[in-house]
Amino acid sequence: MSSKVFRDTLYEAVREVLYGNQRKRRKFLETVELQISLKNYDPQKDKHFSGTVRLKSTPRTKFSVCVLGDQQHCDEAKSKAMDIPHMDIEALKKLNKNKKLVKKLAKKYDAFLASETLIKQIPRILGPGLNKAGKFPSLVTHNENMVAKVDEVKSIIKFQMKKVLCLAVAVGHVKMTDDKLV
């Protein structure tokens, strides 16, 4: 049994949220979150699920991406037009599977991109730290535009259904228009 939310209802709810924000201003940028509650779903019997969805716009303003790349990707990330944080294989080897340093790296950045030559070596160089943090790098190839790939990673949201019958994902912030949020 599935139920669908109509577009008008969604726009009305988004306008109400944005209007509520205008009435009572906060000293920080509030996040708009979408919450979905599942009915007739038994988490003990049925399978848990997770996935990703690409949004039209970036939901979070301060989302940092680090490029773990070969020399070409590091040079591309270093260029003045982009200035994206990056690490080459030598910098990764300096971490030397040190759990504290890998954990610190995973905490510092929200997402990672890795060159196709380097992505297979990352578990061997860094250990399981990035994977445990749920931040295993996405693949970036040499014929892909780095800026477009970074924007794509920034606009992807992950959801995970565990024991609670409610999914909550950040879809934007209150300074966005209702068209961007829907």
In a few lines, what is going on in this structure?
By secondary structure, the protein is of the alpha/beta class. The protein contains 8 helices and 8 strands; from the N terminus they run αβββαβααβααβαββα. The mean pLDDT is 81.
What does this structure look like?
The chain is of the alpha/beta class and 182 residues long. The protein folds into 2 domains: 7-49 and 161-180, no CATH class; 65-155, Rossmann fold (3-Layer(aba) Sandwich), CATH 3.40.50.790. The protein is built from 8 helices and 8 strands; from the N terminus they run αβββαβααβααβαββα. It has helices spanning 7-23, 71-78, 89-95, 99-108, 122-126, 129-132, 146-154, 178-181, and strands at 31-37, 49-54, 65-68, 86-87, 111-115, 138-140, 156-161, 166-173. The strands form 3 sheets. Strands 4-3-5-6 form a 4-stranded parallel sheet. Strands 1-8 form a two-stranded antiparallel ribbon. The protein is globular, with a radius of gyration of 19 Å.
Kindly list the characteristics that best describe this protein.
8 helices; globular; alpha/beta; Rossmann fold; 182 residues
Gap between N and C termini: 24 Å
Rg result: 19 Å
Number of strands: 8
**Global geometry:** globular
**Total count of helical runs of at least 4 residues:** 8
Q: Mean of residue pLDDT?
A: 81
Structural class by secondary-structure content: alpha/beta
Q: Low-confidence parts, pLDDT < 50 over ≥5 residues?
A: none
* Strand numbers in spatial order across the main sheet: 4-3-5-6
How large a portion of the residues is in β-strands, by DSSP E?
Answer: 15-25%
Helicity range = 25-40%
